[in-house]
Amino acid sequence: MRIWVLGGGAIGLLYAAKLRASGADVMLLTRTREQAAKIAASGIEVCDEKGSWNIPCVSIAVDDLTQPGELGEEAPEWILLTVKQYGITERMLAWLNSLGQASPRMKLLAMQNGLGHLERLAAHLPPERLYAAVVSEGALRTGPASVQHTGSGVTKIGAAAPDGEGEMQRRRTLRDLQKVLQNAGFESILSKQLIDDLWHKLIINSVINPLTALLGIPNGELIEHQSLLTVMRQLMEEARTVAARSGAQTDDSIWESILEVCRRTASNRSSMLQDLEAGRPTELRWINGAVVEAARRCGLSVPTHETILQLVQAKERIR
User: Fold this and answer.
1) Residues 165-169: what's their mean pLDDT?
2) Using the 8-state DSSP alphabet, how is residue 127 labeled?
3) Looking at the chain, which terminus has fewer C-beta neighbours within 10 angstroms, N or C?
């Protein structure tokens, strides 16, 4: 199985490295030639609580890739799309469309946080080619060719459009990918309710990420202050109401899940906080912004999310 990992951020580096270490046929596609050259020359360094090791990995910048129509047998069977939401540009969508037309066997696994990406991708890929993942691995990019694995999690995978014609074939396709992921050390689960899973993670992210970004604190500090717990619960309850109105089911234990994430990742700095500190765009638009937009479509009011959205947007502008 030939796999391309598209995106050289923390998740892309982690999955490319571990898949390659397991013997999978993997190539990492990066945005810049500089990153690709460094990885091609020295591999990917992965660090965790057990130590660190270096994994050789083929890497190339997307702009240097052979045109989709000329790939032939070199085309991938799977693309793991690991760029952040704002990295899914119109140019990338057009490239994926061309690759899909030239490579009948190509399938894509979208691994983004938030909502909105599947609809954009579905406009360029047929349903039998489009799959999604909900990822809870902890990863921190420490350099262009190095990543720290800060915590093991679960990778839930499923079809973006799970119902309808071809469902059984899509399940068989996913089982093949699941085996490859598990062989690389990723706990992988096939999900029949991926939209529910996406909303579940969205709610957790919409509570933890913006507050840590605004306050500049690690995840664990959120639950040390009663005033913050009050705001966190308000954010959760608003988002759950929107999820239910949007047709998603969320578990009653989600509040405990939020607290557990804060405890388990107490020293972690959320991705939104890291983005702000590094001067990068954040995924706010696809997290809290997605809650606000879905609420508007449903005729609901989410004042806490609207306030948080405005505050983080202001911080992005004045940093």
Assistant:
1) 76
2) G
3) C
